[in-house]
UniProtKB/TrEMBL annotation:
Residues 23-145 form the MATH domain. It holds the Pfam family BTB. PROSITE patterns: BTB, MATH. It comes from Bracon brevicornis. This is BTB domain-containing protein. It comes from the Eukaryota. Residues 184-248 form the BTB domain. PANTHER family: SPECKLE-TYPE POZ PROTEIN (PTHR24413). SMART domains: BTB (SM00225). InterPro entries: BTB/POZ_dom, MATH/TRAF_dom, SKP1/BTB/POZ_sf, TRAF-like.
């Protein structure tokens, strides 16, 4: 059968197995650890953290404090709480305890996970050596997960040999447009600092800007007075490149910016960072942050954490902050 001009032929295509690698890092800090293990609880549960495309995999860490099979040790387990995937092949999972600048008690495993599966080590920490792994009575656990998934794809030879993905080219090109103000057609004025940008890119990534640019602009200027220039600069960098590294230092402020400007991908990354740093000391404040920024996933995870750490939570302060949020909500209605 003849091919029409311009039609691609399967003979010119190569069968290619693509391997997608996901890396997830999570640090769990447990303060006043000696006090925690002397309570009646049989386990301590971390806040949830996420992996996968669109954060579809929900994980948590669990410390087993009173294991009948091994009472002299504390167990550590990684649990898959939920996932839209049928199975997840964890090629590499490493637990380590962070103390000062060193890593201690490294343990690794590899296995297949189904929803609600829990894997780990029942003898992770020797009870007699607990003080040796604490840093100012804090236990800091690092969990590193590497997940790979394979899929078949037909590519031409040029695509197979390409060393840089289309996404990387696109991110680099857009970064160049942002940094060098190439063909910029709008100015963001942020507390005296100007950022040159592009209406179509902002509108494609932000509900706020999509609505804004459908209106008439005065001199092509948008004034932003709610945020510091460094926050808007980081937000723009994420909008143009999708680079997650800009989120870590300004997660709380960027969460507010993502909520105001309607940037869902940025909001999800901010929630991940804040959950990774959730502790008993900041959990109540995190409830307030989640409420004022309409961060439902963050709110649900923090409330799960509070429910499992009730004896160490200041519920009076929680009631005050929830009341403060309700007042703000009424004032703005």
């Amino acid at each position: 059968m003849a091919h029409e001009p311009g039609a691609s032929s399967s003979a010119n295509k190569l069968e290619c197995t693509r391997i997608h690698i996901e890396k997830c890092y999570y640090t769990w800090t447990i303060k006043n650890f000696n006090l925690q293990i002397n309570k009646d609880s049989r386990e301590l549960i971390s806040p949830a953290f996420y992996s996968g495309k669109n954060n579809e995999d929900k994980w948590r860490l669990e410390l087993g404090l009173r294991n009948k099979d091994n009472e002299d040790h504390i167990g550590l387990y990684l649990t898959l709480v939920s996932s839209r995937r049928k199975t997840i092949d964890v090629d590499f999972c490493e637990f380590a305890i962070l103390k000062s600048t060193s890593k201690m008690c490294k343990r690794k495993f590899q296995c297949e996970y189904n929803e609600e599966d829990s894997r780990g080590f029942k003898d992770y920490i020797n009870m007699k050596k607990v003080d040796e792994v604490l840093d100012d009575n804090c236990l800091k656990i690092l969990c590193k997960i590497i997940i790979s998934s394979c899929y078949e794809e037909k590519l031409n030879e040029k695509e197979v040999n390409s060393q840089i993905t289309t996404q990387q080219y696109l991110a680099n090109d857009l970064r160049n447009f942002l940094v060098n103000s190439i063909l910029a057609d709008v100015t963001l004025l942020v507390r005296g600092t100007e950022f040159q940008a592009h209406k179509q890119i902002l509108a494609a990534r932000s509900r706020f800007f999509a609505d804004k640019f459908s209106e008439e602009l005065n001199d092509g200027i948008v004034e932003i007075g709610d945020f510091e220039p460094k926050v808007v600069e980081a937000m723009l960098h994420f909008i143009y490149t999708g680079d997650k590294s800009v989120v870590e230092e300004n997660a709380q402020d960027l969460l507010s910016a993502a909520d105001k400007f309607g940037i869902e991908a940025l909001k999800a990354e901010c929630e991940n960072i804040l959950l990774a740093n959730l502790t008993e000391d900041n959990a109540v404040q995190m409830v307030f942050i989640s409420l004022i920024n309409h961060a439902e996933r963050l709110h649900n995870s923090v409330m799960d954490f509070i429910n499992s750490h009730q004896s160490n939570v200041d519920f009076k302060l929680l009631d005050e902050l929830v009341g403060k949020f309700q007042k703000i909500k009424i004032d703005n209605s």
